[in-house]
């Protein structure tokens, strides 16, 4: 049990360190880094490497934004097997819709509750 927490911390920390290095050394903007991590997660899932990483690291691999890229490709590939080319598009939305919906709803509630400083 303790090993599971350790590896989640290490893998999540490594992903964060890579992101920080991209900010500091490569001088990438947050938007570029975010996009790069989504693409990396998608590529890793396309080669079948992200699922074993999630099994090994748990939340250390599912919490970072790389997991969103993984979800997009995973959903697209699953639905493509069932419904062909249409499944590629619908699969991406089906798998990620709950996370996107939650972000929109909580963002809206946050905007109602808190007043921005102007």
UniProtKB/TrEMBL annotation:
Q: Which domain of life is it from?
A: Bacteria
Record keywords, A-Z:
Membrane, Transmembrane, Transmembrane helix
UniProt keyword annotation of Oxidoreductase present: no
Ranges annotated as spanning the membrane:
6-26, 33-50, 85-114
Q: Which InterPro entries match?
A: Spore_V_AE (IPR014204), SpoVA (IPR005562)
* A Pfam family that the UniProt record links to this protein: SpoVAC_SpoVAEB
Keyword Nucleus belongs to the record: no
Q: What is this protein called?
A: Stage V sporulation protein AE
- Organism annotation: Peribacillus cavernae
Per the record, the gene is: spoVAE
